[in-house]
Amino acid sequence: MNQYTFNTIMPLIMPIAFFIFFFAILFYSNKQKAKVLGRLSAGLRGSVSRFSFIPTFKGEYQGLNFSIELLSGGKNSPPCLKICLAKNFLFRLTIYKESFLSNIGKKLGVIHEVKINDEMFDRDFLVFSNKPAQAASYLNNSSVKNAIRELFSSGFNALFIKEKQILIQKPNYNLEIDINPQNITQTLQRLFMLARGG
Q1: The model scores a pTM over 0.85
Q2: How many domains, the chain?
Q3: Lesser CB count within 10 Å: N end or C end of the chain?
């Protein structure tokens, strides 16, 4: 191979080699995650989805379908554990933990949240909804509030209720600690409490 041919081919080979290396690492990482997710079938009714780009465990809990996804991190986002429980709702709801920035936003009038007239809950959580009255009524259930507190105290940082599901997410999860039948069952029980409250 002469120098001219080498200089022509190398710019083409390098990107291909990089993508092969990248996907090999991703494949190995996803295989390990799928293996850990597979252990959940010992305590839960479900299985790991085959041929999924995102390692996912799907199953049924107390008659409701659920899914557990392990998302890889990106440049500006950490790895994330997402758990969804299927349930129909008549409103949308988003809950985050209050923070220094959210308090500033409220003082500046940029953030308009739903208040439920529970001083401690309103102080600790940032609540948004497309139907504030329904959301406030839902959140005035003490079992619902306790389940939300327990989810956030266990490391989840966001909760979303949509028309057909409840979704929670946990950044920087621990594969061995967070993904075990006991912890996942506890989390699903709390989500089921939220589903029953709705």
Answers
A1: no
A2: 1
A3: N
- Contact of 112 with 127, CB cutoff 8 Å: no
User: Using H for helix, E for strand and C for coil, what is the string for the chain?
Assistant: CCHHHHHHHHHHHHHHHHHHHHHHHHHHHHHHHHHHHHHHHHCCEEEECCCCCCCEEEEEECCEEEEEEEECCCCCCCCEEEEEEECCCCCCEEEEECCHHHHHHHHCCCCCCCCCCCHHHHHHEEEEECCHHHHHHHHCCHHHHHHHHHHHHCCCCEEEECCCEEEEEEECCCHHHHCCHHHHHHHHHHHHHHHHHC
Residues 6+ apart with CB under 8 A from 163: 88, 89, 90, 92
Residue 159 belongs to domain spanning: 3-197
d(C-alpha 115, C-alpha 136), whole Å: 7
Instruction: Enumerate the β-bridge partners of residue 64.
Output: 61
Q: What is the pLDDT of residue 25?
A: 44
Least confident of 29-33, 46-50, 88-92: 29-33
Q: Helices 181-197 and 142-153 sit at what angle, rounded to 10 degrees?
A: 150
Q: Pick the closest to residue 81 from 156, 137, 2, 148 (CA basis).
A: 156
